[in-house]
Design brief:
mainly alpha; 7 helices; 189 residues
Length: 189
């Protein structure tokens, strides 16, 4: 009977789960430290990519002659960054959640991180609802028309202004995360 239980996948998985929970319990502060630090590093990488995109890429397709709008034309040359951003944000949000879970009970870190996570998620929802939707619309226009109207130009300018605000909020969130990371890295245990 003992050999049958050892060959059972569910039983083996339960033993592995117990080992995992023991490991996580013993090393929860270490996981909290490294997940928050990794969270901050990824945030700064995303900020760098957003700043580059805002300073270099957006002005190329948004201003000047109509031909520049063709940079968004995904039929012929791909400036479609959605796969990069979807995967980058997915990994970041998973790490953010892990750091929130492990840091939540740490005094002076958990509640502050929860506020930053809430603010981050508000901006992420805004990004998905407004910015992603508009950039897809701009790409559709770039794929279908050569010239764009005054309305489209106004929408582009509005998108650019709000993008500056959005990127600034992300930068502020990551700056407020720095003292939390320093504080947790100085904890012993």
């Amino acid at each position: 009977m003992n050999g049958i239980l050892e060959n059972c996948f569910v039983f083996a998985a339960m033993i592995g789960f117990q080992d995992l929970t023991i490991f996580v319990t013993k090393h929860s502060l270490l996981i909290a430290k490294y997940s928050l630090f990794l969270n901050l590093l990824i945030y700064f990488l995303m900020n760098g990519a957003q700043i580059f995109e805002t300073i270099v890429f957006v002005p190329r397709w948004a201003f000047g002659i109509d031909h520049n709008f063709g940079l968004l034309n995904t039929k012929y040359k791909s400036a479609d960054l959605k796969y990069f951003w979807i995967s980058f944000h997915t990994v970041h949000e998973i790490i953010f959640l892990v750091s929130l879970i492990f840091c939540y009970k740490i005094e002076g870190i958990g509640n502050n991180l929860l506020v930053l996570f809430f603010l981050h998620m508000v901006v992420r929802v805004w990004t998905i609802i407004y910015f992603a939707n508009k950039i897809i619309w701009f790409q559709t226009l770039a794929n279908t028309i050569d010239k764009h109207s005054i309305k489209v130009l106004k929408e582009i300018k509005k998108w650019i202004y709000l993008n500056y605000l959005r990127v600034s909020i992300y930068i502020v969130i990551s700056i407020f995360m720095v003292p939390l990371s320093i504080k947790i890295l100085n904890l012993h245990g």
